[in-house]
Amino acid sequence: MKKSFLVGIAVLAVAILVTGLFFTKNLERLNYGVTLFSGAEQYENFNRLDEIYPVSTMTAAPNVMHFGEGQLISLPQSFSYGGKPVNVNRFLKDTDTSALLVIHNGQIRFEDYWLTGGRKVNWLSMSVSKSFIATGIGIAVDRGLIDIQLPITHYVPSLVGSAYDSVRIKDVLQMSSGAAWDENYSDPESDVMRLGMIMTVGGSLDDFVATLKPEVEPGTLNHYNSADTQALAMLLSRATGQSVTEFITDNIWHPLGMESDAYWLVDDNNVEMAFGGLNATARDYAKLGELYRLKGKWQGKQIVSADWVADATKPDAPHLQPGVDADYPLGYGYQWWLPETSEGEYSAIGVYNQFIYVNPARDLVVVKLSAFSDYALTADESSYREIETIEFFREIAKS
Known about the structure:
Radius of gyration: 21 Å
Largest sheet: 6 strands, mixed
Number of helices: 11
Helix content: 25-40%
């Protein structure tokens, strides 16, 4: 009897401990979710989201590719934006920069880390992950598994009856699905905030995407919509028979020789938060930019076709051209942002000032990871500083 009583006490103690850990973890997740876009500092979160959320892991490559070490450069002291000089050190500090990596012609020319960043630190990509998803789609297209001229519902029947019903995959890639959507980070009731809140309070990302309704004719308006990328992730998994984690690991992560494990935030159904949930190191992010700079070819092997790279990084319709949107001057490709340029620049961009910037004319790739706490607090560029950041990269290119 005494032994049974002690066993019962032990079981109860373990149950209390487990329950306490469960609620502590959920409270931490809730606290993180509700403080996003509030002005709260996030640099102590973006480096450790695997401690807060459930994740799926992409393992480091069996054969790691290391960038060469080139002659190190100093950053320019200032750059021009809006007709005024901007002090570089102040800019990096103000945008809570955690990592800055400059790769020129395949060699590291500058690398530094601040705050909680570091060479081996996985950092939240935010929407930079969208460009990885699009690259996965491109590889599947090259293999004949996906035809982007077909409607997405050809491969994902669960989206029949939603905004994506009969919408061409190419239009979804170009953020021109026509779905009704509000990507307002300062409004907790906006569509993007409700989509993101699934990661905090639970639910299904796939089910949420299936609830969207159409608003405009597909292929006529570039309207940024994170759910479009989540729909593309559904497409990738259905067409290939693998999860996003598995497909990206096998076809991007390992072939590019990524040096560190990386992880995706996942929902209750172990579905990846494709629109912004990839966490990786600066050097491994840079390898995607370098792959595109090299037109899809990596160490003698064509990872994704040169045609895909070209198509993904050019605006091929009037509504995708830079300058069409008066509020945001960048154009759009297949989940890549396209500034007005004579040098063929393009960039993956994530909120809080995450970047993979590519300038193929200058053989340049720049990664900037950040935790810009003022992001989206106001409606003007001072709370985004993304166009300003591109001017900073251009100043680096000049040097």
